[in-house]
Design a protein that fits this description.
By secondary structure, the protein is of the alpha+beta class. It is built from 29 helices and 20 strands. Helix content is about 50%, strand content about 15%. β11 and β12 form a beta hairpin.
């Protein structure tokens, strides 16, 4: 029996008790950790619990050792395995800490540091256990090996599972109207018009059609057109993107196996790729052609390692066709081949081809097609004064290295981004030879030198360009780790530990920042009743008709020659509008997005140029030249709004809860124990909307447990600061006005205004009596005045 095992057993007991205590005291955990706030009696209880649990772990280990001696186990493997198994419990306390609300935003470096510690502990624990198991297997003469072919099949199966899962998730998001004109709609229309117009015609940029190649030079879309022809719909692109991203797991497996000659490590890196949070961000962010670079570039790296020149050039050529900036990565691959592989003719040729292609695409083809690279927009804060474009970026990069370092390292979000990129692969790229980083430099430079915060955010698609290089470098780093001479048992346990780290690390980062799987569960969106209504309107529009619609609706209408992003209307035959507050009114953004969009919609209802042909649930379908006699009714329907309580701001903390009685499955519920910051009592306020002159009815869906009592439970009002600080309409609600306890009932206010009202709020004040719940606030124009 080894003394070190006693420490492991005690640490396991200590950690299990600490995790148990943390789970029981989740509400106070943040104050305990960050402010050391804990009453003395609670601290004494915690100390006793930790002591007893540590003692229990040690006693269990001693008992196992005594039993082993009684049974004649001279090697003492049973107590050793028990101690190291108990040591695995040391990862438990991390879970409640990572579950602290907003730790990922308020303390991001702590959260990522704990994630790294979890991966390190997993590595250490599995190495320790693996050492014992490998020793036993070696002593028994039972070496276990997986066939490389079986590993390849397994990697393919994992990729297939990923493709099916992510295709399902993204199609459900699309069916729930959560995909956008920029960029799914653009690519859908571009693919449709390749088949029907002969070029990438798109009308989503404005009232005039453009050739999409002028905006982004992506000839690979022509290769997708035959597949798209089988099912001409935006969902085809979502499925294709999921398949392309999933396919990258196969060359990742082959790369890792090539460098380590170990099937387990190959599968571990392939799974790490499929669990990679940044990959999920690419997959969920609509469709973008840059996502198509992962599989061919990873295949090119593998074929380069195998020395298969012709297939390598084919794969690299496919990567080159994805987007204009891919040419810089191709040129960097050529430089790496020249300097690192010392294959001078091949390296020089690839580098020259990449640079020539970039010059052709950016310098001639895109301007010739009416577009231009977005360099000044994306790198505005970095470009040297008096310069512009790529030259301005190069001037700063070459002449002011200190500014460049501060530009990157002085931005905490960029440092967090780097941790989110390299932590899921256990920082293995750091162990790769310096020269092998050359292919990663263009993508890193684009992501880190940019002024646009979305480009160093793993929930967006921009990291797709970097992902292949990260996993290539990880495979190279893994090869260097496993190439170190050691005993057979030690080498096997090291590989098992490395595999464990490669699985724990991406899961931990996903838990904090994952766009698909995180502490809030899996992001699986199902279409609701309103989505079904909108889908019915979409189906009513003729397939060949020109149409203008909101961003998240138009993606269902872009498989046609002409579709505009509202407020662009141009020559559209149909307008499909939605006044629901939850709709996406982009390009209008911010608090007033809906109000500005409504101001764009109203003239089309009042001009007589379009007439209403259908209206339901705030959704309007207008046709050019149709009878406009119902347009005033349509205007009232458009301006009606239903605000779900959980979407409105409130003063009381922790009031948004799941509620099966509520229309959206969630509501705001206050109790007497709800904290009142600075004495404020608003259960909800906002939404600071603007109203036209007219008469309005406002309905508040409320419930309480004080039905039948005289005490006031709430005050509802309509308020705007433009009225001099007094509510335009108000009403106190007592328990006697409820027919039953715990059931939503509607309370109404009516008011009118002879002038436009700005920043209107529909407030509910909690009186501090019992439970008060709010499901929604419904605002309906009864009569509009000119």
């Amino acid at each position: 029996m080894r003394p070190g095992d006693a420490a492991r057993a005690a640490a396991g007991g200590y950690a299990a008790a600490l995790a148990f205590w943390a789970m029981r005291h989740r509400a106070a955990l943040a104050d305990f950790l960050f402010q050391n706030a804990l009453p003395p009696e609670s601290r004494r209880g915690l100390l006793l619990l930790l002591f007893l649990a540590s003692a229990a772990g040690t006693i269990a280990w001693l008992t196992a050792g005594w039993l082993a001696q009684r049974r004649g186990d001279a090697a003492g493997r049973a107590p050793t395995l028990l101690a190291r198994g108990l040591a695995a419990l040391t990862v438990l306390p991390f879970a409640p800490v990572l579950a602290i609300p907003e730790i990922e935003t308020q303390h991001p470096f702590l959260g990522l540091g704990l994630s790294a510690a979890m991966a390190g502990l997993a590595f250490w624990i599995v190495r320790d256990i693996g050492q014992v198991v490998a020793d036993a297997a070696q002593a028994g003469g039972r070496p276990q090996r997986l066939s490389p072919r079986a590993g390849l099949i397994a990697a393919g199966c994992f990729a297939l599972i990923y493709a099916v899962l992510l295709a399902t998730v993204t199609v459900l998001r699309h069916n729930s109207f959560m995909t956008h004109a920029f960029d799914l709609g653009i690519h859908d229309q571009a693919l449709y018009n390749i088949l029907h117009s002969g070029y990438m015609r798109t009308t989503l940029y404005g009232p005039y059609a453009i050739d999409y190649l002028g905006d982004h030079f992506s000839p690979i879309l022509f290769l997708l057109a035959p597949v798209y022809a089988l099912f001409q719909d935006a969902r085809t692109l979502l499925v294709l993107q999921s398949v392309f991203l999933a396919a990258g797991a196969v060359p990742v497996y082959l790369l890792a196996h090539e460098k380590t000659r170990n099937v387990l490590l190959g599968l571990a890196l392939a799974l790490s790729y499929l669990l990679y949070p940044a990959l999920h961000g690419v997959n969920l962010r609509d469709f973008h052609q840059i996502a198509l670079i992962c599989a061919p570039l990873l295949a090119a790296f593998y074929l380069l390692e195998r020395g298969r020149t012709v297939p390598f050039l084919i794969a690299l050529g496919l990567a080159l066709m994805v987007k204009e900036e891919a040419a810089l990565t191709v040129a960097a691959v050529g430089a790496y081949i020249f300097l690192g592989k010392r294959r001078y003719r091949l390296g020089a040729g690839v580098m020259a081809a990449g640079l020539a292609y970039f010059a052709f695409a950016v310098g001639w083809a895109m301007p010739h097609l009416g577009g231009r690279p977005q360099i000044d927009t994306r790198f505005g804060g970095y470009i040297a004064a008096g310069a512009g474009g790529a030259a301005g970026v190069a001037w700063t990069l070459l002449t002011n290295p200190l500014f460049t370092a501060l530009w990157i390292l002085g931005n905490p979000q960029k440092l967090i981004f780097l941790l989110q990129i390299f932590l899921p692969v256990c920082f293995l790229p750091v162990l790769a030879p310096a020269v092998t980083w050359i292919p990663a430099l263009p993508a890193l430079a684009i992501l880190l030198l940019t002024s646009a915060h979305t480009q160093y955010d793993i929930t967006y698609h921009y990291a797709a360009h970097l992902i292949p290089s990260v996993f290539y470098l990880a495979a190279l780093g893994m090869g260097r780790v496993t190439a170190r001479p050691a005993g057979r048992a030690a080498t096997q346990s090291l590989k098992m530990a490395l595999a464990a780290g490669l699985l724990v690390a991406p899961l931990a980062v996903n838990y904090l920042y994952g766009p698909l799987i995180n502490k809030n569960g899996i992001r699986l969106t199902m279409p609701d009743r309103h989505d079904a209504v909108v889908a019915g309107f979409v189906a009513q529009i003729p397939a060949e008709a020109s149409v203008s619609a909101l961003s998240d609706i138009v993606t269902h209408l872009t498989a046609r020659r002409t579709a505009y992003l509202f407020p662009d209307v141009a020559d559209a035959e149909y307008l499909l509008l939605d006044g629901d507050p939850r709709a996406n009114f982009w390009p209008h953004e911010g608090l007033k997005a809906r109000d500005r969009a409504l101001r764009d919609m109203i003239p089309h209802l009042r001009s007589g140029e379009f007439g209403l042909i259908r209206m339901e649930d705030g959704v309007l379908l207008l046709k050019r030249g149709a009878d406009p006699s119902r347009n005033e009714e349509a205007l009232r329907g458009l301006l009606a709004a239903r605000y779900e309580a959980e979407d409105l701001p409130g003063d009381l903390r922790e009031t948004i809860v799941a509620d099966p009685q509520a229309s959206g499955g969630r509501a705001r519920i206050a109790t007497a124990a709800s904290p009142h910051p600075e004495g404020r009592t608003a259960l909800v306020y906002g939404p600071y909307t603007d109203l036209l002159p007219g008469r309005y009815r406002v309905e508040y869906a409320l419930k309480t447990d004080r039905a039948g009592l005289d005490a006031r439970v709430a005050t509802i009002d309509v308020f705007t600061h433009r009225d001099g600080g007094l509510p335009r309409a108000a009403r106190e609600i007592s328990g006697r006005e409820f027919a039953a306890a715990g059931r939503y009932e509607v309370f109404t206010l009516e008011f009118e205004t002879d002038r436009p009202l700005e920043d209107v709020e529909f407030r509910v004040q909690y009186a501090g009596q019992g439970m008060l719940g709010l499901d929604y606030v419904q605002v309906t124009p009864v009569e509009l005045w000119q």
